[in-house]
């Protein structure tokens, strides 16, 4: 998949929330990615940083 | 999120079993407390996708799994050709012609099982931490199915211990492997006779009907049917799925109450 997104890897909940603040609204948490990435490929996912 | 080890733990917190949101569906069965107290959660998790998917998929991701609709879960070019709908920058629901409401279906399979056992969800966001009943995070609006802030992190799912649940789980789908649900029915009864029936796949949110072992079971079925706003937006027809609601609920009550 061509991908100009940036992936961040928080190591604590606090860090994840802080990262989300920095990204504004343009991000998405990814856990196993089995739902979110499939939706993105279909063009169903909002963009994220 | 996979670097956050604190979300991968299963621990006892007072009267609850706390299951970290990053516990993978395939790993639920490795925890003795889940096997002993909440086997229906494992049964539900084992119906999600395929074995490979369950090795990556997490419990937190599953309860937040996006709603589905046959007119929406298509490729970009397909939707471009057919026309965009309310859930995707359009101004009309292709399935119903409505200009207001989207009825994309709630399809998480573990959430109905969890809700039937009064699960709660621990959330952290910019404003702090809080615990909610799991069913309260679902809005019933197919466009925006959950009322969580985008920055909210699910920390864990809490299941009450010592309630001695007996449960039943049914899932209707075309192929017994891989397919999303067309109807999920989870029913649990605890040691005090509290009965909770939860339906997935037939409404934008889980349909919950509570009662007890003395309740009029026909009445519970009627309430479940009334609460389900299924439309023709997936492979099985609305009528068939609605008739299967009664079938699955009757089978569940026979198993649990006799
Ligand atoms: C072929 C196929 C078949 C499938 N079949 C089924 C099925 O039968 N039943 C079913 O229920 N699902 C099914 N799915 C959907 C998906 O695989 C599961 O729902 C899975 O459990 C999602 O978990 P995940 O960890 O991969 O979530 P992700 O894809 O990583 O995330 C899903 C959503 O949850 C959010 N999220 C994840 N973790 C957190 C967290 N800790 N805090 C806050 N937000 C979070 C993400 O931002 C995203 O919005 C299927 C998917 C595929 C591709
Ligand atoms: S129910 Fe209607 S608005 Fe919602 S996703 Fe399907 S076609 Fe779109």
Explain this structure to me?
- The complex is a heterodimer of chains A (49) and B (258).
- Chain A has 49 residues and is mainly α.
- Chain A has a domain at 13-43.
- Chain A has 2 helices and no strands.
- Chain A has helices at 13-23, 36-41.
- The mean pLDDT of chain A is 83.
- Chain B has 258 residues and is of the alpha+beta class.
- Helices cover 26% and strands 22% of the residues of chain B.
- In chain B, the strands form 2 sheets. Chain B has a 5-stranded antiparallel sheet with strand order 1-2-5-3-4, with no helix packed on it.
- In chain B, a hairpin with a 2-residue loop joins strand 3 and strand 4.
- In chain B, helix 7 (217-227) runs antiparallel to helix 8.
- Chain B is globular and about 55 Å long.
- The chains are: A mainly alpha (49), B alpha+beta (258).
- The A-B interface holds A 9-13, 15-17, 20-21, 25, 27-36, 39, 42-44 and B 1-7, 21-22, 24, 49, 53, 56-58, 60-61, 64-66, 72-76, 79, 88, 124-126, 150-151, 153, 155.
- The complex binds flavin-adenine dinucleotide and iron/sulfur cluster.
């Amino acid at each position: 998949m061509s991908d100009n997104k940036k992936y961040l890897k928080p190591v604590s909940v606090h860090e994840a929330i802080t990262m989300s603040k920095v990204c504004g609204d343009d991000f998405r948490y990814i856990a196993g990615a089995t739902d979110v990435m499939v939706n993105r490929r279909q063009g169903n996912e909002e963009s994220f940083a | 999120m996979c670097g956050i080890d604190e979300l991968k733990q299963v621990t006892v917190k007072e009267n609850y079993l706390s299951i970290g949101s990053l516990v993978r569906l395939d790993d639920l069965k490795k925890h003795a407390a889940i096997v002993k107290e909440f086997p229906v959660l494992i049964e539900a998790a084992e119906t999600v996708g395929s074995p490979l998917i369950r090795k990556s998929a997490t419990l937190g991701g599953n309860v937040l799994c996006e709603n589905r609709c046959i007119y929406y879960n298509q490729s970009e070019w397909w939707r471009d050709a057919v026309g965009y709908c309310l859930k995707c920058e359009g101004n009309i629901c292709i399935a119903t012609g409505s200009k207001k409401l989207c009825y994309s279906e709630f399809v998480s399979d573990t959430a109905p099982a969890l809700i039937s056992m009064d699960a709660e969800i621990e959330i952290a966001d910019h404003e702090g931490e809080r615990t909610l009943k799991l069913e309260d995070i679902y809005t019933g609006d197919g466009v925006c199915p959950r009322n969580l802030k985008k920055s909210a992190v699910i920390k864990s799912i809490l299941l009450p211990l010592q309630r001695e649940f007996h449960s039943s789980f049914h899932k209707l789908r075309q192929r017994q492997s891989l397919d999303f649900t067309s109807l999920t029915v989870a029913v649990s009864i605890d040691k005090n006779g509290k009965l909770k029936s939860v339906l997935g796949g037939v409404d934008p949110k889980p349909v919950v009907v509570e009662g007890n072992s003395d309740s009029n079971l026909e009445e519970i079925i009627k309430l479940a049917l009334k609460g389900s706003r299924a439309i023709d937006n997936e492979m099985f027809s609305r009528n068939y799925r609605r008739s299967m609601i009664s079938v699955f609920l009757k089978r569940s009550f026979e198993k649990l109450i006799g």
